[in-house]
Amino acid sequence: MYRTLCLLALAACAFAQQPSRPVIPEEFTATITFQSHELNETYDGEGRWAHDQAGNRAVQEFEVRNTAHKDRPLHEVRLFRFDLKMEYEVEGPANSSKCAKRPLNGTLESAFGWVAKADYAGKHEIRHHEFDFWSYHDGGITVEMGVDPEMPNQPAFLARRGTHEDSFYDFHEFKAGTPEAEAFSIPKECQ
After folding, report:
1. CA distance 159 to 45
2. Is 83 inside a domain boundary?
3. Does any domain span residue 4?
4. pLDDT tens across 88-103, in order?
5. Which domain holds residue 68?
6. Which of 26, 134, 146, 180 could connect to 157 by a Cys-Cys bridge, CB 3.0–4.6 Å?
7. How many domains is the chain partitioned into structurally?
8. Which residues contact 145 (CB under 8 A, 6 or more apart)?
9. Complete DSSP assignment for the chain
10. Residue 7 falls inside a structural domain
11. Is 58:80 a contact under the CB 8 Å cutoff?
12. Is residue 2 part of a domain?
């Protein structure tokens, strides 16, 4: 009996140390900085990400710099308008970006649905502050998210690691709620 009580007490302590799983909203607007390593190239930049799961649309817009050529920034937009059955991708120097249009089928994928299947990866200190990290691995890609224990349903960091690319995102602002309709306007390069 004593042994069973001790084991139950240890299990309760171990379970109590794991925080509740984050529930990240699928409607949000975020301001982000990032760094990406692809093969022998490193890129960094900043921009915005708006996701409207209910409206079936999302956009990521960034100013991107190759760290070897910081004097030549690129403007990149990926607009997914499943409501219009179209994807718009803009890429190139800010004053001469080109547009590619592609038809879309289906519905918008969840931005953070993977968190429901993620494992708790422990606490990590970043900039003198502890964050709870969650990790999910699927088919050669690992996705990790760090959340502030004081704001557990808001991402602070996101990392994607794969065979040929590692990307790290730092969320400076995360506003839950349906993004403004203007966030999903078709880029002028695509009109």
Report:
1. 15
2. yes
3. no
4. 999 998 778 899 999 9
5. 24-190
6. 146
7. 1
8. 22, 24, 112, 115, 118, 133, 134, 155, 157, 158, 159
9. -HHHHHHHHHHHHHHHHSPPPP---SEEEEEEEEEEEETTEEEEEEEEEEEETTTTEEEEEEEEEETT-TTS-EEEEEEEETTTTEEEEEEEETTS-EEEEEE--S-PPPSSGGGGGPEEEEEEEETTEEEEEEEEEETTEEEEEEEETTEEEEEEEEEEE-SSEEEEEEEEEEEESPPPGGGGPPPGGG-
10. no
11. yes
12. no
Instruction: For residue 121, give the nearest of 9, 22, 6 by alpha carbon.
Output: 22
Give CA–CA dist 152/177, Å, rounded: 16
CATH number of domain containing 83: 2.50.20.30
Contact 45, 62 (CB under 8 A): yes
* pTM for the model: 0.85
